[in-house]
Amino acid sequence: MESAATYFSGFNPNDLWFLGEAALRTLWISFWAISIGSILGVFLGLALSVSRLVAFTLGTILDIFRSVPLIIQLVLFFNFAPIIGLRLNPFEAGLIVLIVYTSAYVANVARAGIEAVGIPMRRAARSLGMNYWQDLRYVVWPIGLRAVFPAWVGVALGVLKDSALVSILGYVELLKASQILMTRTQEAILILSIAGAFYFALSYPISYYATRLEQRWSQ
Amino acid sequence: MDYNFHWRPVFKTLPDLLQSAVLTLEVAILSMILGILFGLALSLIRINMTGPLKWFAVSWIELARNTPALLQLFFFGFGLGAFGIHFSPFLIVLMGLTFNNAGYLAENFRGGFNAIPDTQVRASLSLGMNNFQTYTRIIIPQVLRIVYHPMTNQMVWAVLMSSLGMLVGFRELSGETQFFASKTYRIFEYFAVTAVIYYVLVKIILGASRLMANRLFKY
After folding, report:
1. Per the CB < 8 Å rule, is B71 touching A76?
2. Spatial contact of A109 and A151, defined as CB atoms under 8 Å apart
3. Mean pLDDT of B13-27
4. pLDDT value of position A56
């Protein structure tokens, strides 16, 4: 037993720093995934709402990303990239998968937002002399955004939490860092609680603020 | 592209994969049943009670919703292991998914309960029904309609989340796939087939839920 003890070392304040840095990396990858994925998703949602044929083909493709576990998508893409000659590090591979995953969800949210704006309203905008893009920018965007903002926040928070899965590719974000520390210190409860607190601190304020904003808008 | 695809080993082990897909469905359905029971209890506590019990329910719900599912699984796996409580991988996944499902479903149920006007409760009480009858005959049938769609979504989520079992050594569909993939080193091929199986599973669930809805909500 005594010799075993020397392989492990206790949890020290430096490790807290290590976890904090890893939390920033979680924030970093989810920030890019959410922002790029959302922009892409809005355009995909626009495409979905334009014609029935596009909605069917594109919708079916996007549906695949929502019906296959993210972890499978990550492993699949990470192993597929070298086959087609792409050399990606875990961050890039994870980010690409997360972007596509986010945009598949945001596309549906965006479509719901566009459909929340009634056709008569849009016809009115056009008959006032607005062109197609003005109609989208000044009529559909402000009204649709309010209708689906809570759903979008839900997607964003989902991606923030799901970014934990990128750890299986070897990107040292919060969960991977806590796995490393668990192996070294053998203090699973403590480290998992700290990691959980970090995730909670990232996620809860956003969901709380979004609820408040939603209430203010609905008044 | 100088990679030769080898699908034969995958198809040879396809029966094993399908068998583990049944295990995936089993754990998802069980976690859903337990999740509905716990979620119902949590939402009722959150609405009707005060004091430590409410505090407990709120922290369960917020923890389940604001931390990654994988972290929750690790908590039940490695975290409780620190106290010398060791569960089988099946139980770890079942408990993790139940914890998560219950948290999300509780919020859905709360939304459903809040959508029923108070006046209906008072009306049914004044008609001489007791509390239990009011719940089972007036409130629950209406709430079920409201939460049916979110519940279906949660069931799909449960199937997708069960894939995390692969990281705690549970040999469901993903775990089995990883086992064979590392044995034959045909990672891409195995995970591609698994992705297809997940897709089909999700479609089956959505189809079944639509059939059930036709039956349940005929009137």
Report:
1. no
2. yes
3. 94
4. 93
CB atoms within 10 A of CB B143: 22
User: Across residues B162-186, what is the average pLDDT?
Assistant: 92
Kindly provide the ipTM of the predicted complex, given to two decimals: 0.89
Answer left, alpha or beta for residue B133, where phi above 0 means left and psi between -120 and 50 means alpha: alpha
Q: Give the closest residue to B209 by CA, choosing from B23, B24, B201, A111.
A: B201
* B75 neighbourhood in chain A, CB within 8 Å: 192, 196
Cα Rg of chain B, angstroms: 21
Q: Would you state the structure tokens that stand for residue B217, as one six-digit string?
A: 């909500």
* CA–CA dist B113, B168 (Å, integer): 36
Partner A contacted by B85 (CB < 8 A)? no
**Residue B187 to residue A189, Cβ atoms within 8 A:** no
Count of CB atoms within 10 A of residue A154's CB? 16
Q: Which two tokens stand for residue A49?
A: 């709402």
For residues A203 and B64, what is the distance between their CA atoms, to the nearest angstrom?
Answer: 11
- The CA–CA distances, whole Å, from A148 to A34, A53, A110, A216, B145 equal 16, 24, 7, 15, 22
Chain B residues lying within 8 Å of A203, measured CB to CB: 66-67
3-state DSSP assignment of residue B26: helix
**Predicted local confidence at residue B194, as pLDDT:** 95
DSSP 8-state class, residue A166 = G
Per the structure block, which two tokens stand in for B112?
A: 């459903």
Q: Tally C-beta pairs within 8 A across A and B.
A: 103
pLDDT reported for residue A73? 96
Chain B (102-141) residues lying within 8 Å, Cβ to Cβ, of chain A: none
Tens of pLDDT, residues A61-109 = 999 999 999 999 999 999 999 988 888 999 999 999 999 999 999 999 9
What is the pTM (predicted TM-score) of this model? 0.90
3 state SS of A74? helix
The answer to whether residue B161 neighbours chain A at the CB level (below 8 Å) is yes
Which residue type is seen at B64? A
Contact B167 A207 (CB under 8 A): no
B 60-79 residues with CB < 8 A to A? 62-63, 65-71, 74-75, 78-79
| Closest Cα in chain A, distance from residue B163 (Å) | 7
Asked if B187 lies within 8 A of A79 by C-beta distance, the reply is yes
B195 in Cβ contact with B173 (< 8 Å)? no
